[in-house]
Design a protein that fits this description.
heterodimer; A: about 250 residues; alpha/beta; Rossmann fold; six-stranded mixed sheet; 10 strands; B: about 500 residues; eleven-stranded mixed sheet; ten-stranded mixed sheet; 13 helices
Chain lengths: ~250, ~500
């Protein structure tokens, strides 16, 4: 589904990714770990098409398409979702209206009929229930006055409504207490399916107690230096990243 | 008509912003936005009677005679004209106003009627005029049948038709053109004309008092709640004319009314002057809600043409607990100079001002409000949202004055500015004068840009850049839009979208 081949990329004018390669097959969950400044968030932003990250060389193939050639909103409609590390506030625009606009834009791109407000409301209410979210989430303006934990939960909720094919979670676990962490993890686990893949960027092993990854990769200095299964995460937790350099 | 070539060039040179914003100017969306379409820009080809350009006492006598006015009104006009001659055009606003040649303007133009008198019903109105209003989305016949909104349509200098008159009369409500009111209710007009905005008030108000042509008159008798929304649709059509309308609304004790005005004009390379006066009088326990959707032609993307909108609007809360509320959505005009205000004379009376002003290309707006607290426990609320796009300049100017006897007066002011692009400017000039220690005044102001982060967030969710900007601006204006009557809120939102992105369907 996703083939990242020897990608070099800049964030601003800094070289961040230096020959990164990664293959993700449908249904797989990949955890990306690594020290600060290794390029973890840059990878997420590159895949989502955020303009502050520019690929210099290499290629990214997504569902048979050249992902880097697509606009960010096209990537979203093709099923790429990024849960932001720092979700953005949009005053005066309620979450529900925002999500309906987003969903219908994506449907329009895919040649599907728009969802009317009644259909959408039913669907969204069901999701709120399934994902254990609070009702008032829908009426509040997008991320305005949300606590750190609420913002992260809202990201996962949006993911649930938009039903992406490839979801990238950028440190969605940081700043969460254990209850919020469980809600976020439950949300992800509910969405796991044979067709949907996840790239989970995290500092800590603890999220992986709740979301069991198929692969764990260590990203250091712009490329993947070690890959393994979930046990690699446990090793990292015990020993830190220092031993990798030896 | 007005000499402005030189001045416009100058304007362009130093219209750089003092508060730059984020986006790069090559941004395709910002460019597309600059090519906005003004769909009301057509001209109606209709025979009309237009007096030659020029302004002197004879012009005023001619207008007055044309309208068959009583002697007292002619004297009122002539007196105003004398005052105007002694006054100077105000220069304190943050506007660059090219010199206006008042002798090159024609002060009266009316579409030829089948007979000299105002049409008695819509059936007597020239079909071309009906068609014009249809095209503008103000179908007079249909509004009459379906929408349940009474409309007074003012075309250049005259009212061409007022709908729902009979139904309103049953409720005791008078809703007519100003000219008609002068003949049918001279005692009311005489009593209230100039009582809130005297002729000497300011330069443009004096000019209006001298040459005003038509407008709307509303009278709601004691205890009557007006059974439907009233609205006036102003249209400038004729070339080289100014529009000087006058609106007067009086709500007697316990009466209430909601009134809306809309305005458009054809696209022309010359600037045209619009200097209106609106006076509102609210007695004890009366409520007046006045909403404006102003969409005069703003000029083209190079700043050529457009309406100069120099308007004086003021409401008087005469009695206790009276309430006057101004809501305005201003997207049009090359230059806007406008400060809808409230004089809070009655105890416990209240005034509100909700405003969205959007400027694009080379538009300039200096707009805001004055809240004059005279009575005890008077209360005012000011919510102003300025949106600057392109190379435009957008200023909020507000005065909150609390008089010595106005114990426990309260004001809350919030003015927010949003910048889109890096060549526009937003400015805030809040003034407060308080002569009473018990007054409580609050002021909040913010200036923000549509941030890259907000745009990127929307894009990542699949929302296109144009839709994202419209979504963010809509959210920014929400507090004001919710004050508009339902159907006009939809209209205002659509208008804002058009002003923002050009021809979005």
């Amino acid at each position: 589904m996703l083939k990242i081949n020897n990608v070099f990329a800049k964030a601003g004018d800094k070289d961040i990714l230096k020959g990164l390669s990664l293959n993700v097959k449908p249904g797989e969950v990949h955890a990306i770990m690594g020290p600060n400044g290794a390029g973890k968030s840059t990878l997420g932003n590159l895949l989502a098409g955020m303009p502050y990250v520019q690929a210099q060389s290499g290629s990214v193939e997504y569902m048979g398409k050249d992902l880097l050639a697509l606009e960010p909103e096209e990537r979203a409609a093709e099923g790429v979702f990024l849960a932001f590390q720092y979700p953005v506030e949009i005053p005066g625009v309620n979450n529900m209206y925002f999500l309906r606009t987003a969903l219908n834009s994506q449907r329009k791109y895919r040649g599907e009929a728009p969802m009317d407000s009644a259909q959408f409301l039913r669907m969204v209410k069901q999701k709120v229930k399934d994902m254990n979210m609070r009702d008032d989430l829908l009426k509040r303006p997008v991320n305005v006055g949300f606590s750190g934990g609420e913002k992260k939960r809202n990201e996962v909720f949006q993911m649930g409504v938009l039903e992406p094919k490839l979801a990238i979670l950028d440190e969605t676990d940081s700043g969460l207490d254990i209850d919020a962490l469980k809600i976020v993890a439950d949300g992800v686990n509910q969405l796991r399916s044979a067709e949907r893949s996840f790239i989970i960027i995290t500092h800590y092993q603890r999220l992986l107690d709740y979301i069991e990854p198929d692969f764990v990769h260590v990203l250091a200095d712009g490329k993947i230096v070690k890959s393994g299964d979930k046990n690699l995460a446990l090793e990292l937790e015990e020993q830190g990243y220092g031993w990798l350099n030896k | 008509m007005m000499k402005q070539e030189l001045e416009i060039k100058e304007l362009k040179k130093d219209s750089n912003s003092d508060q730059g914003a984020f986006a790069n100017e090559d941004n395709a969306v910002v460019k597309a936005r600059a090519n906005q379409k003004y769909k009301e820009g057509f001209v109606t080809d209709i025979e009309s009677f237009t007096i030659p350009p020029g302004l002197d006492e004879n012009t005023i006598r001619l207008i007055s005679a044309k309208k068959n006015e009583p002697q007292w009104l002619l004297e009122y006009r002539l007196d105003a004209y004398k005052k105007w001659l002694e006054m100077d055009q105000p220069e304190w606003a943050k506007l660059k106003i090219p010199a206006i040649d008042f002798q090159s303007i024609s002060y009266y133009s009316s579409p030829n009627a089948k007979n000299e008198n105002a049409p008695k019903s819509l059936d007597e109105v020239d079909p071309k005029l009906i068609e014009t209003y249809d095209k503008l989305g103000v179908p007079l016949h249909e509004r009459e049948r379906l929408a349940g909104v009474a409309v007074d349509a003012v075309f250049d200098s005259v009212s061409v038709g007022t709908t729902f008159k009979a139904e309103l009369e049953k409720a005791g409500v008078i809703f007519s053109s100003f000219s008609e009111a002068v003949h049918e209710h001279p005692e009311l007009v005489k009593k209230y004309l100039g009582s809130v905005v005297p002729a000497r008030d300011n330069y443009f108000a004096a000019l209006n008092a001298a040459v005003f042509s038509d407008g709307s008159f509303v009278y709601i008798p004691k205890g009557v709640r007006c059974p439907m929304e009233l609205s006036t649709y102003f249209r400038i059509n004729a070339i080289n004319t100014g529009q000087f309308e006058r609106t007067l609304i009086v709500a007697e004790e316990g009466a209430s009314v909601s009134y809306l005005e809309g305005c458009t004009a054809p696209m022309r390379d010359e600037n045209q002057l619009h200097a209106a006066v609106v006076e509102l009088v609210a007695m004890t326990d009366a409520k007046i809600k006045y909403s404006t959707v102003q969409n005069w032609y703003p000029g083209d993307e190079n700043g050529k043409g457009g309406i100069y909108n120099f308007v004086t609007k003021r409401g008087l809360c005469q009695g206790d607990r009276a309430k006057i509320s101004w809501t305005q959505v201003e997207t049009g005009s090359a230059i806007t100079w406008k400060y809808p205000s409230c004089i809070l004379r009655g105890d416990y009376s209240s005034g509100e001002f909700y405003s969205v002003a959007l400027t694009n290309n080379y538009q300039q707006a200096d707009t805001g409000t004055k809240m004059i607290h005279l009575g005890k426990h008077t209360k005012s609320t000011v919510i102003s949202k300025g949106i600057s796009v392109g190379k435009s300049q957008n200023a909020y100017r507000g005065l909150i004055r609390v008089a010595k006897k106005a114990d426990y007066a309260r004001n809350f002011t919030q003015c927010d500015s949003l910048l889109i692009g890096k060549s526009c400017g937003a400015h805030t000039f809040p003034y407060t004068e308080s002569a009473n220690m018990t007054a409580k005044l609050e002021h909040e102001a913010t200036t923000s840009k549509i941030s890259e982060d907000q745009l990127n967030y929307c894009l990542q969710r699949g929302i296109t850049e144009e839709d994202a900007i419209s979504l963010i601006v809509d959210g920014f204006c929400k507090e004001v839009f919710k004050e508009l009557p339902m159907e006009f809120a939809v209209e205002a939102k659509a208008l804002l979208d058009i002003s923002l992105e050009g021809a979005i369907g």
